[in-house]
Design goal:
Blueprint: E1 3-7, E2 10-13, E3 18-25, E4 33-39, E5 46-51, E6 58-60, E7 68-73, E8 78-83, E9 92-99, E10 115-116, E11 120-125
């Protein structure tokens, strides 16, 4: 059983930065593709970014491309999401997710992932 715990959320002004962390336990971290999703009130959970098992491949939603950076440290069992130039529309609960599946197929869809963290709130004020 994989446990994922996010941290690093908070309140920040527009234009500011935050770094989210997601610590994984329960199985070999390098076996998992890791993703970040977010969900704003009244909206569906949406894909933000994903990273391959060895960190060599990363993908982003168009809405965050150029502003967010996903990375992982397999020695620390942790995936990160560096968020720069934050906008009010980035306000949401951010979730990390994990799957053993290879980085092929519907990795932008929440159902493709097997395990989820509890989420961390990010609020960007204007």
């Amino acid at each position: 059983q994989v446990q994922l715990v996010e941290s690093g959320g908070g309140l920040v002004q527009a234009g500011g930065s935050l770094r989210l962390s997601c610590a994984s336990s329960g199985r070999t971290f390098s076996s998992d593709v890791m993703g970040w999703f977010r969900q704003a009130p009244g909206k569906e959970r949406e894909f933000v970014s994903t990273i391959s098992k060895n960190g060599g491949a990363t993908y982003y939603a168009d809405s965050v491309k150029g502003r967010f950076t996903i990375s992982r440290d397999n020695a620390k069992n942790t995936v990160y999401l560096q968020m720069n130039s934050l906008k009010p529309e980035d306000t949401a609960v951010y979730y990390c997710a994990a799957t053993l599946k290879p980085l092929l197929g519907s990795w932008t869809h929440p159902l493709w992932y097997d395990y989820w963290g509890q989420g961390t709130q990010v609020t960007v004020s204007s």
